[in-house]
Design a protein that fits this description.
The chain has 135 residues and is an alpha+beta fold. It contains four helices and four strands. A four-stranded antiparallel β-sheet has the order 2-3-1-4. Helix 2 (46-60) packs antiparallel against helix 4 (108-117). The longest helix has 17 residues, at 2-18. The protein is globular. The two termini are 20 Å apart.
Length: 135
């Protein structure tokens, strides 16, 4: 059992070294910066929702420091009392650190996304947090 744990730990260390995971300090130690955005559209149709998801993919995916990217539409079939249904499209980007998020905010592709799509937005809610990811 000890041998398996040692092998697993060694494998994780090699994996982390291979993807350039740098040690973090303070509040962010061992965490990534999660940037979650919830869009409500002025005109919510299947076409306008998909257009926003497509624009997220085009302009917001692949930025330096990104460790996770996802964009999609609200799961309309979920109707439990606890479900917040006041959005149409969600965007989830996790960055290695806050510096990656700051660079993303100023990136011309992000600014182009805003300029191209913001006329369609009724509301935009942004939730930024430090999260621990589990492999």
């Amino acid at each position: 059992m000890k041998r398996l744990l040692m092998i697993g730990s060694l494998g994780l260390a090699v994996l982390c070294a291979g993807v350039g995971v740098a040690p973090r300090h303070g509040e962010a130690a061992g965490k990534v910066f999660a940037h979650d955005v919830y869009f409500t559209l002025k005109k919510s149709t299947p076409e306008t929702r998909q257009a926003l998801v497509d624009a997220c993919q085009k302009y917001l995916n692949g930025h330096q420091g990104t460790v996770l990217f996802a964009a999609g539409t609200r799961a309309r079939e979920m109707k439990r009392d606890v479900n917040d249904t006041d959005f149409d499209v969600s965007l989830h980007i996790h960055f290695e650190d806050e510096a990656g998020h700051a660079a993303y905010q100023e990136n011309p592709r992000h600014q182009e996304f805003i300029a191209e799509m913001n006329a369609n937005w009724k509301t935009v809610r942004v939730f930024d947090s430090w999260v621990t990811t589990v492999p």
